[in-house]
């Protein structure tokens, strides 16, 4: 009887509260929580406060609309430069339904359109008042303004004999529940751009931070590592790629500072290298595949700027004959390593030479031998992937060979270049023509590889080397006009165009 009197007293006091609806703030729940804890904690066998403090058992109407900042981290994290994960903890209110556990899975399938779909958040929790009951969390952005489910959902509940009354559940969000973009948007000054992408090289995250992001660089690096399983190190490049070795200076933002040797896979082929000493760009994966797809078994590939082997190794896997060169001693070392790693070291001849010396030496010798054969059935391809300056090497092909071609199937060149021109296709073609000393109109293709930066495109021009460029014209076969006019003079207009382009670049 004593317990019943306490219950009557509790409900009498509860009715005195003006309780038409609950807001999403914690303060609105205080009166009910106080009465609830004061009256029920004294009853034998009742739930503890810890078991009850996450939800209100009274069916209530929801707010007129969901809080737009429901899944936004707490404002106190704004301006944070050293990551404090605990500061991201906040409590939000979500709608929930009380159901019996024996119908839980069937009901979840029927209500999937209105269930809470927040990554990392559970949609079901134990009902602290009923060991056979469960709480199903609903999406607060899909509950109508009047705070009840739609007609179709209510019919589903009726068929399962479930009450349509919606309760409110206080759900705790922590650092683990927020996405990278949400965390960085909450930390950086309002309106400032956050990183939207980064390159993943094995266990290393490679970021290109903008100036306004630098004060937060260590926090950004740690967040990227935290939110991407398998990453243990985040780096930011501190200068542009320049110099003959095509590598750049970098700083470690977070993680293991000395662990730069990494392993990646591209089209089922493994590569290992020291990322701090060689060039690797995962965004060129599709381009590597495109070029290798042009090759057939038995073809020859001459890779002038081979790096650690993203063209050379898959070409050798395709049973092509490969000559691969790189000036960087580290790239040369890892190129050899990757050939052995993928068991193609017997099919790849590896060189550590300047690109021009490579073309004028091993490539010239191999081309002369292959092009003198009238029975040759395989194709010859030359890849020049050094977009900052590869076009400048095209002049090597001018009169590289002597005599006359034994076949019309001459080598195909795939040369990469950057362009900031309004018409990058025309720009790249004209620059290539200037170096070759002949027109490529109608006999070349220019392919957009990727957008490197605003108003900067990476392009690939592919063409078969014209015979009049590759072969030195013999005096005995030249016409009278040719004897009177030296070859160098005939090529002068293109040389002038090259000089003009170089002047523009400066």
From TrEMBL:
Claim: Transferase is one of the keywords in the record: yes
Binding-site list for S-adenosyl-L-methionine: 288, 326-327, 354-355, 385
Superkingdom of this protein's organism: Eukaryota
Record EC number: 2.1.1.228
Compartment list: Mitochondrion matrix; Nucleus; Cytoplasm
Enzyme kind, highest EC tier: transferase
Entry GO CC: mitochondrial matrix; nucleus
Enzymatic reactions: guanosine(37) in tRNA + S-adenosyl-L-methionine = N(1)-methylguanosine(37) in tRNA + S-adenosyl-L-homocysteine + H(+)
InterPro entries: MeTrfase_TRM5/TYW2, SAM-dependent_MTases_sf, TRM5-TYW2-like_MTfase, TRM5/TYW2-like_N, tRNA_Gua_MeTrfase_euk
Alphabetically ordered keywords of this record: Cytoplasm, Methyltransferase, Mitochondrion, Nucleus, S-adenosyl-L-methionine, Transferase, tRNA processing
GO biological process: mitochondrial tRNA methylation; tRNA N1-guanine methylation
Domain SAM-dependent methyltransferase TRM5/TYW2-type as annotated: residue spans: 198-467
MF terms in GO: tRNA (guanine(37)-N1)-methyltransferase activity
Primary location group: mitochondrion
Keyword DNA-binding attached: no
Gene3D superfamilies, per database record: Met-10+ protein-like domains, Vaccinia Virus protein VP39
The protein's role, per its UniProt record: Specifically methylates the N1 position of guanosine-37 in various cytoplasmic and mitochondrial tRNAs. Methylation is not dependent on the nature of the nucleoside 5' of the target nucleoside. This is the first step in the biosynthesis of wybutosine (yW), a modified base adjacent to the anticodon of tRNAs and required for accurate decoding. Involved in mitochondrial tRNA methylation. Specifically methylates the N1 position of guanosine-37 in various tRNAs. Methylation is not dependent on the nature of the nucleoside 5' of the target nucleoside. This is the first step in the biosynthesis of wybutosine (yW), a modified base adjacent to the anticodon of tRNAs and required for accurate decoding.
Oligomer and partners: Monomer.
Annotated family: Belongs to the class I-like SAM-binding methyltransferase superfamily. TRM5/TYW2 family. Belongs to the TRM5 / TYW2 family.
HAMAP family with a match to the protein in the record: TRM5 (MF_03152)
Protein name (record): tRNA (guanine(37)-N1)-methyltransferase
Gene that produces this protein: TRMT5
